[in-house]
Design a protein that fits this description.
Helix content is about 80%, strand content about 0%. By secondary structure, the protein is mainly α. Helix 4 packs antiparallel against helix 6 (about 80-95) and helix 8 runs antiparallel to helix 9 (about 155-185).
Length: about 190
């Protein structure tokens, strides 16, 4: 559970960015500035460790800080939801593609070093990273559709929230379930 909380803390700037009511450009600029600072504060230790999620978070909020706050590029604000989900999907699926699932960095904080190469441990983190990547990709598609077709915002928000909550639930449930499955399999052999 500590790993989940640590991972949730790493996502905190992204979560707040989604939840904050940002109706004006001024509100957006204040939020971006605050979230850039928050990404440094909440990610400081993990930035020093070289964790990919806090680095992507810092780079993203730095990019939009300069783009929106400094250079007033309103186009970034128009396509912000697409940009956010593109970055998060690329982070998750890219880390998986290069063989370094981002969830593995957090899981290693609670697992003895001698188990880091365990195939079950690696597989569980590959699956978790894949599920998060698919959730981000699904949300990206929803946001692209929102810009192309006039779907009611409430439908897209419900689908997006369901996708994210599903990934959260899966992250909590799957490692325990899979471990029990493996144990039962070994007992029957």
């Amino acid at each position: 559970m500590k790993v989940f909380i640590k991972l949730l803390l790493s996502f905190l700037p992204w979560i707040l960015f989604y939840l904050l009511p940002l109706h004006t450009v001024a509100q957006l600029k204040v939020a971006i500035t605050a979230l850039l600072l928050l990404s440094i504060i909440t990610g400081y230790r993990d930035l020093k460790r070289g964790f990919i999620l806090p680095w992507c978070t810092l780079l993203f909020f730095t990019f939009i800080f300069f783009g929106i706050v400094v250079f007033d590029l309103k186009i970034l604000a128009v396509y912000m939801s697409i940009l956010v989900n593109s970055v998060l999907a690329t982070l998750a699926l890219g880390s998986l593609a290069v063989g370094k699932p981002f969830t593995l960095q957090y899981a290693r904080l609670e697992v003895a070093k001698d188990k880091w190469q365990n195939p079950v441990f690696i597989f569980v983190n590959q699956v978790l990273t894949f599920v998060w990547g698919m959730s981000f990709l699904f949300n990206l598609i929803l946001n692209i559709l929102r810009n192309v077709y006039p779907y009611p915002h409430s439908i897209l928000a419900t689908l997006s929230n369901a996708s994210t909550l599903g990934a959260i639930f899966f992250t909590v449930w799957f490692p325990k379930w899979y471990q029990k499955r493996i144990q039962k399999k070994h007992q029957h052999q």
